[in-house]
Amino acid sequence: QKEVEQDPGPLSVPEGAIVSLNCTYSNSAFQYFMWYRQYSRKGPELLMYTYSSGNKEDGRFTAQVDKSSKYISLFIRDSQPSDSATYLCAMSASFQGAQKLVFGQGTRLTINP
Amino acid sequence: NAGVTQTPKFRILKIGQSMTLQCAQDMNHNYMYWYRQDPGMGLKLIYYSVGAGITDKGEVPNGYNVSRSTTEDFPLRLELAAPSQTSVYFCASSKPGQGHYEQYFGPGTRLTVT
Questions:
Q1: Which of B2, B33, B41, B57 has its CA 20 to 30 A from that of A17?
Q2: Is residue A23 a contact partner of residue A72, using CB atoms and an 8 Å limit?
Q3: With left for phi above 0 and alpha for psi between -120 and 50, is residue A67 left, alpha or beta?
Q4: Which residue has the higher pLDDT, A50 or A96?
Q5: What mean pLDDT, rounded, does chain A reach?
Q6: Is the pLDDT score of A99 beyond 80?
Q7: Does residue B95 carry a pLDDT above 70?
Q8: What is the per-residue pLDDT across B4-46, written as a single tens digit (0 to 9) for each?
Q9: Tens digit of pLDDT for each residue in A37-75?
Q10: Contacts of A90 in chain B (CB under 8 A)
Q11: What is the Cα–Cα distance from B35 to B87, expressed in whole angstroms?
């Protein structure tokens, strides 16, 4: 079983729709939960991070963590064509003093005008 | 600030050739990482470093070597290239401690081995 599972999509929705992206994980030691956004032929960039269970909102984006179910989500409201990208969930825990991220496969999202 | 820079952007290697992928950062970050990303897949950690002179293996280190002689530079060496090493390689850096979750990525090197 992979430590982090993410549906690779692709996912295509019309402009203005609410988008839901999800990941599940198996390692209960994970403490930090991140969403990275990767535009085509670019490196990933951090979009949001959370440390605890619950919701965190940043503009049109909401990150949700449910540690009891080992499930995280990213919601995008009023989606725009500029949101078209691959979204990677990532999680981390300390391993022998170093902190490493474990990434999901990434979900390729297209917002159609 | 240039952030994280990688060279070259593209490279085609023949089977058995060797090359070094260069990575540099100007943010004074202690932590640096090398990942590979295969089509439709996430990022897999090859090697990482927590400071100059200290490196350690990640999830997929076979066929690669690294060194870290300065805080700024973290080159990745491919010895005896194989088709399985065809991938996009990303270098990243981060602060230690609570800043570790924000990794800054370079633009990537697209490598094809034929």
A1: B41
A2: yes
A3: alpha
A4: A50
A5: 92
A6: no
A7: yes
A8: 999 999 999 999 999 999 999 999 999 999 999 998 788 999 9
A9: 999 999 999 999 888 888 999 999 999 999 999 999 999
A10: 101
A11: 10
Confidence at residue B98, expressed as pLDDT on a 0 to 100 scale: 63
Contact: A97, B50; criterion CB under 8 Å? yes
For tokens 């956004």, name the residue: A37
HSE-CB of B51 using CA atoms within 13 angstroms: 4
CB spacing of A97 vs B92 below 8 angstroms: no
Q: What is the 3-state secondary structure (H, E, C) of chain B?
A: CCCEEEECCEEEECCCCCEEEEEEECCCCCEEEEEEECCCCCEEEEEEEEECCEEEECCCCCCEEECCCCCCECCEEECCCCHHHCEEEEEEEECCHHHHHCCEECCCEEEEEC
Q: Does B101 touch chain A (CB under 8 A)?
A: yes
Instruction: DSSP letter for A62, please.
Output: E
Q: Rounded distance, CA A112 to CA A46, Å?
A: 23
Query: Distance of alpha carbon B24 from its chain centroid, rounded?
Result: 10
Pairing of strands B109-113, B10-13: parallel
Q: How many CB atoms lie within 10 A of CB B21?
A: 23
- Measured at the CA of A97, the angle between CA A96 and CA A100, to 5 degrees, comes to 85
Q: Which residue is closest to A49 within chain B, CA to CA?
A: B101
Segment 60-89 of chain B within 8 Å of chain A by CB: none
CA-to-CA separations, A110 to A10, A13, A84, B90, in angstroms, rounded: 8, 6, 5, 23
